[in-house]
Amino acid sequence: MFPIKIKRKAEKVFKLCLKKKVKLTFAESCTGGLLSSLITSFPNSSKIFSCGYVTYSNLSKEKMLGVSKKSLKKFGAVSAEIAISMAEIAASKGKADIGIGITGIAGPGGATKNKKVGDVYIAISDIKNNLGDVIILNLKGAREQIRLSSVDCALDLLIKYILNPKKES
């Protein structure tokens, strides 16, 4: 189902989370639950995975997560601000150590004047330190390639963050 390179990265995330006793929660939009599906493909994934929210529409981002309607209107669903909000809320609601928020345009439609197909925002929030990072991507390819590349980048972000968590200054 997933390319071997991505599956191996997910296994690394899984093992790191087990070793460091890290619990994850994801809020996914353009990936439609692919990241959650990948992490839960490993036996005993409940030891590291709390829950996943697939919030594809603005309404689901509001109702399921609690992302503010005002923020969605101001920044648009495909934005760094919304990805960060999704990650923070997911971590909090899921009672997890780390939350990931992914939002973007996988295409082929959905582009606007300011946002293109392949624009993806991935945010990470560490509930202990109340800090987050966001990466902004402009991915190329067909819909499934953009979705898989988004998952791949989210795994890279998780590995980097778990190995070197930010500390409050």
Secondary structure elements and their pairing?
Layout: H1 4-20, E1 24-28, H2 34-39, E2 49-54, H3 58-65, H4 69-75, H5 80-93, E3 98-104, E4 119-126, E5 131-138, H6 143-163
Parallel strand pairs: 1-2, 1-3
Antiparallel strand pairs: 3-4, 4-5
Helix pairs in contact: 1-6
Q: What is the structure about, briefly put?
A:
This protein has about 170 residues and is an alpha/beta fold. About 45% of the residues lie in helices and about 20% in strands.
- Helical segment count: 6
Query: What number is the mean pLDDT?
Result: 95
Biggest sheet, strands in spatial order? 2-1-3-4-5
* End-to-end separation: 42 Å
Give the overall shape, derived from the CA principal axes: globular
Series of H and E elements = HEHEHHHEEEH
Largest sheet: number of strands, sense, barrel closure:
5 strands, mixed
Oligomer: single chain
Explain what you see.
The chain is α/β, with parallel strands linked by helices and 169 residues long. It is built from six helices and five strands, in the order αβαβαααβββα. It has a five-stranded mixed sheet with strand order 2-1-3-4-5, sandwiched between helices. Strand 1, helix 2 and strand 2 form a beta-alpha-beta unit. Helix 1 runs parallel beside helix 6. The longest helix is centred in the C-terminal third of the chain and has 21 residues. The mean pLDDT is 95.
